[in-house]
């Protein structure tokens, strides 16, 4: 998207607003499938938690993708978007058994990551195929909060507990049709994926009726110009060769699955905010915008850096600013960053705002959630209305006090 396109969206729908470039989502999807073109049966299942708007889900399904879900509500969103149940995998953690039962009734692929749930499910639904999520005991990811495959992680069944899994399978006569793992997010080193792959292959060889192997995701995307990222093409070449060799040794061709979230939608997203005021203190120049960590929590929560550009005056001389929000707490998007000179009412665009941005938004400080727009075929399509006061109190109950 061009600056003029983003300004058009800001003028038409106001600020703050999230904008997603459909063309960028499509190009990322095509890049991933092209990297693994040597795999006969590749399945891409988009991680709904990254960005769950039903229009985005519908669009990714139109590209050929399925969905990776972590809650019943995400399953329902996928079905509402028109994605068939057999294109959806359910990978929850720590949920009640009733959620697994409900998912089974809906007909989605179920992925189980604890021995107790596996035994309980196998005893009640021995005819329903399930996938097993393993924990490979690999520390990987951009930071500890998004590293999920290490030995202290709550996710997955330890690779050292595979004999217990096999015992449960034998006792219940259940059907294991897939093996899954996800080591973390923002993984840069291709060798980490390949190391984890060997663990997955070794585990998979112990199960005789598999239909797919699921490698999760965790591909790192660039967050600023010249930033490093996962070399998908190198990974595709190396992992495809190793996966095809595994299939040959296994005795049949099975599917290779990935569950990208950030990789598909992060770079498609822009978060548009308007500058309320420029505040000069003794040490800092603050650009105060009409949003806060209620809309974009990643900088405060993860220390994530989002490039911020002044799309109203992109060619002005650059000055140093701290960009802050209007939340009544420390609420900093960026500290001491060079941005083209900012004036009141300028529109700032936060880049890489497609993944884990709106989906983690809240009504903190009783602020409304922003609008969402899909930029599709050079048109701005509203895919979520901006909240109004009625939305804020729709589920609240005012009681009579004597």
From TrEMBL:
Transmembrane region(s): none
Keywords: Amino-acid biosynthesis, Decarboxylase, Lyase, Lysine biosynthesis, Pyridoxal phosphate
Molecular function GO terms recorded: diaminopimelate decarboxylase activity; pyridoxal phosphate binding
UniProt xrefs under InterPro entries: Ala_racemase/Decarboxylase_C, DAP_deCOOHase_LysA, De-COase2_C, De-COase2_N, De-COase2_pyr-phos_BS, Orn/DAP/Arg_de-COase, PLP-binding_barrel
EC number: 4.1.1.20
Coiled coil ranges: none
Reaction equations catalysed: meso-2,6-diaminopimelate + H(+) = L-lysine + CO2
Broadest EC class assigned to this enzyme: lyase
Positions of post-translational N6-(pyridoxal phosphate)lysine modification: 49
Pathway: Amino-acid biosynthesis; L-lysine biosynthesis via DAP pathway; L-lysine from DL-2,6-diaminopimelate: step 1/1
Sequence positions that bind substrate: 298, 302, 329, 356
UniProt: pyridoxal 5'-phosphate binding residues: 218, 356
Active site: 328 (proton donor)
Superkingdom to which the source organism belongs: Bacteria
Functional description taken from the UniProt entry: Specifically catalyzes the decarboxylation of meso-diaminopimelate (meso-DAP) to L-lysine.
Family note: Belongs to the Orn/Lys/Arg decarboxylase class-II family. LysA subfamily.
Alphabetized NCBIfam families for the sequence: lysA
Protein name: Diaminopimelate decarboxylase
Gene name for this UniProt entry: lysA
